[in-house]
Amino acid sequence: MAAPLAEVGRAASRRPCGAPLIEFRDLGKRYEFPQGRVVLDGLSGTIGAGEFLIIVGRSGSGKSTLLNLLGGLDRPSSGCVSVDGHSLSALSDRELTLLRRRRIGFIFQAYNLISTLTVSENLLLPLELNGLTGAADTVRRWLDRVGLVGLEEAYPDQLSGGEQQRVAVARALVHEPDLILADEPTGNLDLDHATRVVALLDELCRSSGKTLVMATHSREVAGKADRMLTIHEGRLLEVRE
Ligand SMILES: Nc1ncnc2c1ncn2[C@@H]1O[C@H](COP(=O)(O)OP(=O)(O)OP(=O)(O)O)[C@@H](O)[C@H]1O
């Protein structure tokens, strides 16, 4: 049975390695507007703790929609998702917010850094929201890990695309979530920088046993993913190469 939400905030180390972190069953999503369209149709599966899973699919196939459902950013039209045994549909909006804040790190294509905050301040935010102490040291350590020492006081628009994405990577990981959901994290980067960002993400997640689910157009950046799934006509298929 799942532990109460308040008690599972930082319980990743108790989970046996390889046990499913995410389970989804008969998951469906239909958007009513602008015209009724079924984007996801009866998807079921599991994602193991510590796994690196890539989701590919053509533009508009539903990759972002799936990540949003897995991360509790949107509610499914049918079916259910559970994260570490917590059924997302059973959580109130407040509980869902807490689960997302504590347990999940999001990385988006357009970085989504807060433009009026410096690099350091962008990283401090998730720590402060989670009431974590020792924040200044943690931020310094993460800036070192992603190779951004010296840019602490810079604002996002003073950084290159690759640098901004490394800030976004650090921001998603700084509060030690169990699950990282990355939606086209390299979409704005050339192949060389894209490959480096994915390698960094992979290394950071693997070294700390975090689960990484990444949606991308490009199989070339898939790197060392453990598994690759594709969404085609609303269904999820395993890609074997
Ligand atoms: N909020 C919404 N309201 C209505 N339709 C939506 C909404 N969000 C997405 N869609 C539609 O759902 C389909 C899937 O969109 P989604 O963004 O999940 O695809 P994607 O595979 O991530 O695409 P891309 O690779 O271009 O980012 C698209 O046809 C899109 O127009």
Automatic annotation (TrEMBL):
InterPro entries: AAA+_ATPase, ABC_transporter-like_ATP-bd, ABC_transporter-like_CS, ABC_transpr_LolD-like, MacB-like_ATP-bd, P-loop_NTPase. One of its GO terms (cellular component) is plasma membrane. Residues 22-241 form the ABC transporter domain. The keyword Cell membrane does not apply. Pfam families: ABC_tran (PF00005). Keywords: ATP-binding, Nucleotide-binding, Transport. Coiled coil: none annotated. This is ABC transporter, ATPase subunit. It comes from Nitrococcus mobilis Nb-231. The lineage of its organism: Bacteria, Pseudomonadati, Pseudomonadota, Gammaproteobacteria, Chromatiales.
